[in-house]
Amino acid sequence: MLKRCKFIVHYVSKFNVFEQVRYASQILPQFSAEKYNVKRKNFSNVQAADVSYFQSILGNDRVLTDRDEVLPFNIDWIRNCRGQSQVVLKPKTTQEVSEILAYCNKKRLAVCPQGGNTGLVGGSVPVYDEIVINLMLMDKIITLDEISGALVCEAGCVLENLDNYVRGHNLIMPLDLGAKGSCQIGGNVSTNAGGLRLLRYGNLHGSVLGLEAVKADGTVIDCLRSLKKDNTGYHLKHLFIGSEGTLGIVTKVAIHCPVLPKAATLGFFGIKNFENILELYKSAKSSLGEILSAFEMADNLAITQTVKNLNLPNPISDYPFYALVETHGSNEVHDGEKLSNFLNKEMESGLIMDGTVTSDPAKMQTIWNLRESIAASSLVGGYVFKYDVSIPQKHYYDIVPMLKQRLGDKASAVFGYGHIGDGNIHINISVPQYTKEVVSLIEPFIFEEVSKLKGSISAEHGIGFRKPQFIHYSKEPSALGLMRDLKQLMDPNGILNPYKVLPETN
Ligand code: FAD
Ligand code: 2HG
Ligand code: ZN
To answer: Which residues does residue 265 pair with via DSSP β-bridges, in sequence order?
Structure first.
């Protein structure tokens, strides 16, 4: 079985490129307010009396005001945005979140809800002096129903910790992403994070069963039901899924965990051109059916740059494109047979030029690590623009050559990769340094092209701070109007994550 594929994965122990890269550069990013010319909204400034009030609720240890301690909470993961907050609060309970928000709302103090601060659109850090409310200490697992698979936990639980926990009970988390070691489930829910297996397990609007959130005025909204079916009026949880901290702070989540697959296999293949990636995807869907759990692609530069910048092994040699195909099933023999037929067929047809297939967890991890590290590889040296768009699959890769041509030698690298099974491509553009000239070559060009191709300007990372002025490329005025109405209703003073998601009216 699978004899015709070469088993040439070299095992390397997993190391944390994530942190390594994040702290590689000690140069502080420019303040977002200056870089993007943002006018401060009319909020109050934090006074000593406000800090004393927060200390009275949280104690001194959970109110950070020391400049060095506050700094990391002001800078986003890609080191593009930098806020000017002077206060970070670390609540431990929903009651504390409620008291903080009720106070801030009354005093017109703006806040920035924050999870693991891995967001890629600048939504997780303040722009001016918004008070950071970080959920990291709300990290308790509350219940796990092994029959239904419903996990109930606090919003600050780190995704990887949850996955490790439920695996001990024969379940997995329904989402997985490269930032799993740092991102929190509350952040995942608030961004409606997609990730590597959305193709199989669906998005969070499907798997989140219920949640608890605190509105701007401190009201606790209890929608923490764990039922699969609950058609009792408006489906309010959906308002908080993907609203990026602008409508409320998510404090607890009930989420459906699928069964841990008994058999899992991962293939990494070299492909001649983009058309063949699409053909292979069609074939994988038809041959693998219900066991297909991920179908990812990367172009040559995405992989070679990751290999070079992060010193990771490429399990196969150089190819124009790469496809990563994973199966999750319940019967090794049955799954192996399907996979074997698929591989033999597509090696014969030439769609797969070379490849490696493994069921060994350590080797699978090595391949996944390469894929998950692409995001970090482009942070090494210079400055990176990251775009996350959905495009109908036929035109999925069109924008990459367009941008290469448009930018010429102004860009040191332009590459595309992502969740092709979901029509979601990530385009990374590395430049020696951030300049207004380069920005004007990329934006709004990229959004115009996406719009012409009937795509979305944000597939999974959200709108955050970086994209409100482009949201109209993907949202009709009527829909934007309703978004504004909801914001007005739920946060009339606009204290929750200002400067994010909704564009300025003027
Ligand atoms: P943060 O970054 O802290 O916050 C993100 C947004 O949510 C902000 O607007 C913040 O205000 C808000 N927020 C956070 N917590 C709460 C809360 N409890 N209540 C209300 N609002 C809150 N994203 C994907 O979708 N798919 C991927 O495959 C993917 N891969 C990634 C890989 C890497 C290496 C990195 C760095 C990021 C990746 N991301 C991906 C983006 C990011 O990790 C996700 O968006 C993640 O869900 C953010 O979670 P977080 O806890 O870090 O939230
Ligand atoms: C991924 O799929 C992430 O790896 C990150 O969504 C994308 O960095 C990026 O452009
Ligand atoms: Zn992604």
So the answer is: 327
Mean pLDDT value across residues 265-291: 98
Q: Is residue 306 in contact with ligand 2, taking CB distance under 6 Å?
A: no
Domain 381-490 class in CATH: alpha beta
426 lines ligand 2 (CB under 6 A): yes
Cα of 443 vs centre of ligand 1, distance in Å, is 23
The alpha carbon of 388 and the centre of ligand 3 are apart by a number of angstroms equal to 7
Nearest ligand atom owner, CA of 298 = 2
User: 107-162: per-residue pLDDT in tens?
Assistant: 999 999 999 999 999 999 999 999 999 999 999 999 999 999 999 999 999 999 99
Listed in order, the ranges of the chain carrying CATH 3.30.465.10 are 141-256
Check if 418 has its Cβ closer than 6 Å to any atom of ligand 1. no
Q: Measure 463 CA to ligand 1 centroid, in angstroms.
A: 11
CATH 1.10.10.60 is held by the domain 31-134? no
The sheet carrying 141-145 orders its strands as 141-145, 150-154, 249-256, 208-214, 220-223
Q: How far is the CA of 352 from the centre of ligand 1 (A)?
A: 34
Q: Establish whether residue 376 lines the binding site of ligand 2, counting it when its CB lies within 6 angstroms of any ligand atom.
A: no
**Average pLDDT, integer, range 439-452:** 98
The strand order across the sheet containing 88-89 reads 63-64, 88-89, 131-134, 111-114
Residues 269, 353: contact at Cβ < 8 Å?
Answer: yes
Residues carrying CATH 3.30.70.2190, the chain: 2-19+262-375
- pTM metric for this prediction: 0.96
- CATH number assigned to the domain with residue range 141-256, chosen from the 4 options 3.30.470.20, 3.30.565.10, 3.30.465.10, 3.30.70.260: 3.30.465.10
Q: For residue range 249-259, list pLDDT tens digits in order.
A: 999 999 999 99
If one counts every other C-beta atom within 10 angstroms of the C-beta of residue 71, the result is: 15
Ligand nearest to the CA of 118: 1
